[in-house]
What we know:
Elements: E1 35-43, E2 51-53, H1 55-63, H2 67-75, E3 83-90, E4 93-101, E5 108-109, E6 114-115, H3 116-134, E7 139-142, H4 148-159, E8 174-177, H5 183-204, H6 212-223, E9 230-235, H7 237-242, H8 246-252, E10 260-267, E11 277-281, E12 283-287, H9 307-321, E13 327-337, E14 348-351, E15 357-360, H10 367-378, E16 385-390, H11 394-400, E17 405-409, H12 412-425, E18 429-432, H13 436-443, E19 450-451, H14 461-470, E20 478-482, E21 488-489, E22 499-500, H15 505-516
Parallel strand pairs: 1-4, 1-7, 7-8, 11-13, 11-16, 12-13, 15-19, 16-20, 17-18
Antiparallel strand pairs: 1-2, 3-4, 5-6, 9-10, 10-13, 14-15, 17-20, 21-22
The site of one zinc ion has 5 residues, from strand 12.
Amino acid sequence: MSNMFIMRRAAVLPLSRTNFCRTFxxxxxxxxxxxxxxxxxxxxxxxxxxxxxxxxxxxxxxxxSGKLSELLKISGVLKKGKSRVFYGVHKDFPCVxxxxxxxxxxxxxxxxxxxxxxxxIRQAVSAGCRxxxxxxxxxxxxxxxxxxxxxAEGALLGLFQYDQLKSKKKPKVTVQPHASAEVxxxxxxxxxxxxxxxxxxxxxxxxxxITPTAFAETIEERLAQYGDRVVVQKRSQAWIEEQGMGAxxxxxxxxxxxxxxxxxxxxxxxxxxxxxxLLVGKGVTFDSGGISLKPSASMDMMRxxxxxxxxxxxxxxxxxxxxxxINIIGLAPLCENMPSGKATKPGDVVTAKNxxxxxxxxxxxxxxxxxxxxxxxxxxxxxxxxxxxxxLTGAMDVALGSAATGVFANSDWxxxxxxxxxMVTGDRVWRMPLFQHYTRQVTDSQLADLNNIGKYSRSGGAxxxxxxxxxxxxxxxxxxxxxxGVMTNKDEIPYLKKGMSGRPTRTLVEFAxxxxxxx
Length: 519
Ligand code: BES
Ligand code: ZN
Ligand code: ZN
């Protein structure tokens, strides 16, 4: 066997193939198809240079009379997380990417608070798909690696890119499971990943494209296919005024863009009358800070200050696509936070829907204001649990960085459900405190019932924000997820490219799925 199969560049690639399983990107051009295959190989730590192919890789190796394993031997050890491309091994697959997986027995890791096997598969498969994408392969078959859902997630999350507004776009890639990969689990992974990619799309889009109105229309369009199982209400400014949502309006009034209160009802419960799960997301489509203006460096990032609304709405869309047997109501107060002659001024006092008065000492602490009214409204639906998600505080990023979403919960049961879900998805959560200590810092206001910032300013900023929100909660099962730290990805999560992360959409979906199936 010669080394001729290992080449740096693909030579001539065939044009055949018509039958597609799943289109990763709908604007796929089909004229010139270049096919690739991602296969897994287990690294054996004890014996240097010894490897074990996955079931699918073994099957493929048999088809090519052992060519693959021979090439792997010749080309040397493949370390965990690395990939290597072989060319011309099989006529149907001009490019085959082998990806190195960790020990199959790794499983749930208590120290890391995730399932290492699943996480490893996501990483490896995404690395393989990306390497093929860079080689301009436009259709990839993927080894399920023993967990087709994780493999599909790795493939679709790894291939996502936001190039809608560029003239020169990377070629789109379609993916499908290879060989015996279990199709149901694969399809579930596709839907989970597509959910997160929808949130990424909304978060990455510039604020002049995703205004409150455009956000609501995008979600309405995505939900249109689910017929009467879904009801979408785009509440206008007049409705918001009628509701007495003075805290929400105090934020939106500095902007020329009208606010929208988006209300989604997904009715999937087999027993129609079931109490709903309430998901509430902060939807500030641009946060300039208002009169308490933010510094200009990195202000562009604040186009993603609707990440709470994006992940919550994407979770509702995904629940509908999965046909989860559960009722979910998604709420998203959507507006811009801008400075103008009409904007709220530091020291102004506003009244929330429940009648509580709030002294707004810092107009940049606007998320808690819009959520205060949304939480009051959420309680009118007799919820079984209320989960709100928000890019709420820079302090959350200081505390945990991008390792995990901070969860402030008044319910051990709800915390445990969220934690369990995050172990499966690898999009982690970490519990944070809701002490009275913090409550005292937001209830001590000179002019009103509450102050929108803690009296010791920066100290415990994520905790005082959570304590503020709790003043608008009566449900015994409530959790506030501060996602400011996980909003963006540089290179920390290897299967997400640099950009807005769409986290923790999959954890919300997994949580809802477990609730739906009574797990
Ligand atoms: N949207 C920001 C929080 C944020 C910061 C999200 C960085 C993502 C990345 C929020 O509205 C805000 O500005 N919060 C202030 C609160 C402060 C004024 C009490 C903050 O964190 O500085
Ligand atoms: Zn702000
Ligand atoms: Zn904000």
